[in-house]
């Protein structure tokens, strides 16, 4: 895991409203919030965690140092982030994220694409004779897998402006990697536990998917999925 790009020993949040109020760094800094004592000197990964969660990233055990810090000091992080207006969630299936209030009646473009991709992948693994949900996390996703997935669902993918297998990789899976939903292993990818956020919703949408020409119609989609906070839509290479 690479966290070298951020000073993980910076124990203050680099927020505009705080910049003029920050005092010089001390060896031990404590604060009282809602009657809970938060020793900021223990939250050595605070800045990195805050920046990642704010970007929409989901922290899993693949991000071991960050995950351990959150797990060991969960109450302190939750109290601190609640005071700043954020809701830190620890899902029992092994990941942390900021949940956001439902401010829209529609899914974002990225959310719709990820949900559709996961639904078609579940169907694909079921057709191959696997337990589909287990296979999502156990089976690697290769170039060949994506080509078969696109060929079997061309018209569906074209509805969300995905026109070939390379588009699935560049516009969906690589975005999932940037948000902590997947991990790259050479030329293959594996999905991570945060995908359960979508799987839960996808299962509820199953009947609608089969009956609708637009399986993730904006007017009836579950709006509880993450917001598309990553605005970088640059295509990152091709097969």
TrEMBL record:
The annotated regions of Acidic residues compositional bias extend over 215-230
- Biased composition (Low complexity) is annotated at 1-12
Matching entries from Pfam families are given as:
MksE (PF21980)
The ranges of region (Disordered) come to 1-25, 213-239
Q: Which domain of life is it from?
A: Bacteria
What this protein is called in its record is: DUF4194 domain-containing protein
The species this protein belongs to is Litoribrevibacter euphylliae
């Amino acid at each position: 895991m690479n966290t070298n790009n951020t000073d993980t020993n910076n124990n203050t949040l680099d927020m505009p409203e705080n910049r003029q109020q920050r005092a010089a760094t001390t060896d031990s800094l404590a604060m009282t919030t809602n009657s809970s004592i938060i020793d900021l000197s223990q939250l050595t990964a605070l800045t990195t965690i805050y920046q990642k969660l704010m970007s929409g990233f989901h922290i899993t055990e693949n991000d071991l140092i960050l995950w351990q810090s959150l797990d060991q000091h969960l109450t302190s992080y939750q109290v601190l982030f609640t005071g700043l207006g954020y809701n830190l969630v620890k899902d029992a299936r092994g990941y942390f994220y900021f949940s956001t209030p439902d401010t829209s009646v529609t899914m974002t473009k990225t959310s719709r694409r990820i949900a559709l991709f996961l639904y078609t992948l579940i169907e694909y693994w079921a057709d191959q004779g696997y337990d589909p949900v287990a296979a999502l996390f156990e089976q690697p996703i290769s170039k060949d897998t994506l080509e078969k997935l696109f060929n079997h669902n061309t018209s569906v993918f074209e509805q969300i402006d995905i026109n070939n297998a390379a588009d699935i990789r560049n516009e969906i899976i690589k975005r999932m990697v940037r948000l902590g939903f997947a991990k790259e292993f050479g030329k293959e990818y594996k999905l991570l536990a945060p995908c359960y956020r979508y799987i839960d919703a996808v299962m509820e949408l199953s009947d609608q998917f089969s009956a609708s020409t637009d399986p993730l119609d904006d007017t009836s989609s579950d709006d509880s999925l993450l917001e598309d906070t990553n605005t970088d839509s640059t295509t990152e290479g091709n097969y």
